[in-house]
Write a structure and sequence with these properties.
heterodimer, A: 4 strands, B: two-stranded antiparallel ribbon, 4 helices, 67% helix, transport (chain A), ATPase_V1-cplx_f_g_su (chain A), ATPase_V1_fsu_sf (chain A), ion transport (chain A)
Chain lengths: 120, 214
Amino acid sequence: MIADEDTVVGFLMAGVGNVDLRRKTNYLIVDSKTTVKQIEDTFKEFTTREDIAVVLISQYLELYEMVANMIRFLVDSYSKPVPAILEIPSKDHPYDPAHDSVLSRVKYLFSAESVASGRR
Amino acid sequence: MVVDHETPSLENGQTDKEVEENANVLQFMDSMDAYLTLIHSLSSTLRRGWLELASARHSMGASRVNTVLLDHTSHPAATSLLVTQDEGKVDSGKPHFTLCKWASSSNENSLLGEKQSSQDKLHPQLRHRGSTELCEEKTSSENKASREVDDPVQKERSKSLSMFGTLVSPKLRAAQLSFEAALETLVEIANMRSEMLCAFDQVNMKLEGRKDEK
């Protein structure tokens, strides 16, 4: 999980928290002190770990527009089936389907360019 | 008037092809619709969970419900995911996720119980087939199994909340249940996502094939 405090605490109460022998966790709480590099490194680490099947990431990490854009690039360019990247609604912003990475990938089918190129 | 005897068989071939393409498109649209429905359900469940967590924090105090209290000692996750490849499918690259709630090395019964309930949830139509008696028998055996499963599961739930103290607000327990429900929805979303992407690849392949033909 890469999300705000309340979301992480909630899911940890549901039993998904894991801490290995090196004290590495399977979650990152994003707050005002979290840097862009930390989020980027954590995302890359989670997507390469074999013991992680799904990565939950808040769709809108409010405090950092820059972070959201950085993560957007990483998430949109990720294409492996496992671990699955799931964008979850964040506490302060409703879910926006226009920014969902999976829907962005498939909206190509509905774009004017794809229809026009099919007709050529 | 020239009669084209070739046309009927060509039409049949095209019809079969069109039927297959239409089926792929329908599957894609259905899975996308289900994906969006699940996302909205998740939003509502999470909102409930956040509200309950905020209520718990209000009643217990902010110092008792915060991340400082999280357990940073080495421990495995009590809830995990089982990833399998879809059986009987041509496209074996599609993963299938199953949630194993509150399963630990000393708690194999709960693993079986929860897996069964999660599989039943993923394939609810199986429960509704057959006679009423059969359904009732299944229900009573499921109740017995669920009672056997509940005690270790309740213990795991209490253990998970123990980082916030021995006595916790009912709102915190409610928040825990909400986030558990959110987890179940997330697993369904993960499965729907892989179905949608698989259907999308099928449709895209056909479109690319058409472009190449032209």
